[in-house]
Amino acid sequence: MPAAAKIRFENVEKRFALRDGEHVALGGISFEVGAGEFFVIVGPSGCGKTTLLRIAAGLDQPTSGRVAIAHGEGERPENAMIFQGESIFPWMTVRENASYGLRMRGATRAHIDEVVGHYLDRTGLRRFADAYPYQLSGGMKQRVSIARAFACDPEVLLMDEPFSALDEQNRTLLQEELLRIWDETKKTVVFITHSVDEAVTLGDRIMIMSADGLPKAYVDVPFPRPRSVLDLRATPEYGRLFHDIWAQLRTEIHEVA
Ligand SMILES: Nc1ncnc2c1ncn2[C@@H]1O[C@H](COP(=O)(O)OP(=O)(O)O)[C@@H](O)[C@H]1O
Ligand SMILES: [Mg+2]
Question: What is the pLDDT of residue 85?
Fold first, then answer.
């Protein structure tokens, strides 16, 4: 990991009260994500991934522990979050959605036009700038979320299974686009997925989570960048890493099931 930590989870624990006791969603989790690192968390359904990210985003409070985010120069939002489902406003056009964060921060019209125009180009949305979300496919809507998140230039980008509702072809295209945009910006990313494939394709480092809401293993992803999704998947090194991670995850999935 790079020397400078950008986001630090310190003994983060989350318990939910149930009628007959409580559910421990997250044991005490501690780890750091370096500045400019693409960090992926992979784990079985129900292991606490969304809970962890919501806490990082300040949308939920931990029962104990804390999450610290280091601030860089300039005024920036602490985070931008991209969810699996619809996270854009249905009553706003593509351009208005993508501009939202910058408008909230009182950016000038010229700055908004320049930055948002750039990300609409990078996501292939320029032609759809004046369309409304109901006129877009699922993949295009996720592109709007990506454009909005990068346009507002947050300290950290938090993504919770953003592509898991898409068909395989669209998922691959969006992974490629995300890699391209990320290579330009080197934002600090915490990306959650239940897909080993996606974790190995995108990440610099992967945390495998156990069924009981704790880190089980950390895996470095040694593949050089820029990465081509298809070329990468054709290499034996990719296959080996995929196999190793899947083997570790398999026992956890049995735990939950
Ligand atoms: N508000 C809540 N109240 C009670 N239990 C919850 C709540 N939110 C999540 N949980 C439980 O915590 C566990 C982790 O949930 P979640 O973080 O959504 O998992 P994941 O995203 O890994 O699938 C699950 O067992 C879920 O049922
Ligand atoms: Mg989840």
Answer: 78
